[in-house]
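Hi R.,

Quick one: here's the Amidohydrolase family protein sequence you asked about.
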Amino acid sequence: MTAASGDRPYKRIATEEAFCPPEMLERYKRLIDEKAVDDIGFNSMWGFYSSSDSARCRFIRDHLTDVGDVRLAHMDAAGVDFAVLALTSPGVQVMKAADATEFAAYANDWVADAIARRPDRFDGLAACAPQDPAAAAKEIERGVSKLGLKGVIINSHTQHQYLDDPKYWAIFEAAEALDVPIYLHPSSPSDGLIKPMLGRGLDGAIWGFSVETGLHALRIIVAGVFDRFPKLQLVLGHVGESLPFTLYRLDYMHQASFASGRYETMPALKRRVSDYMRDNFHYTNSGVAWEPPIRFLQETIGVDRVMYAMDYPYQYKPEEVGELEAMGISAEAKQAFFQDNARRLFKLKV
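And here's the predicted structure, written out as tokens:
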């Protein structure tokens, strides 16, 4: 046990903790300055975060690139024993295909080196470049088999395109074959979604991220991805991007829509939407340190599929861990939430 774990019979594992090499922030700044990316959300978000001198922006920039003593001190102050690191959004997905493929490999090597220095505190997920699905599949295999990374990070849409398109399914095939999960993490909404949100500042974590990622997850489900890859596991943060709270309606209206024959793009599925959400998804509470939705997920989806995450450094509230320790759930459910589910899903040795 680490010093942070004290007398608890379990460790607290945080499963959605962002990082990036310093070179990626430099590249983002250059892409924005050169107006090289056709993406309203990226240019708005990173145009601000890469240049603002606000305390929040400086904290995020400084701590995304730190996987050493400062991050460890913050983990200790919060009572987090172990972190699963993932390349921050939008990762390489705004870059040109060749550049993205090259930088994904660099980022994976970079985080693997950080993990090797502190394997008692860190593990991580492999980045890839969906722009070139075949190369992405190869990088996933390298990241998992050679570097020892524990899954895949995909930061939602890739230049306004979604993974339900079969041209991307080599990524799903690779993850299923390697028996590792894909963390479907938010990104700024695609251009088709963002404009009404941006006008009132709702495009980011306050709401737009969940709309974007929830849409992406539903597109994957209704496209039949899990009928083609039945063992594939995806992870959704932020208590499931709100989707679990509408399971009844998702089931009813999906069945009604299919029966109506209105959409040629809606194939028959072998199971209900809620079945896939219970059997092919895991969930973290990242950014939502609030007992009611966590308990709802445990009761509705299953105690064995809900995990802890902080969402560092975008959300760092040291006292939240103690607040979640005080949840009125069984000792077994608490241990599953903080430790056991993450250990099993990501095959962690901590």
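The beta strands are 13-19, 82-87, 122-124, 126-127, 152-154, 182-184, 234-236, 281-284, 306-307.

Cheers,
M.
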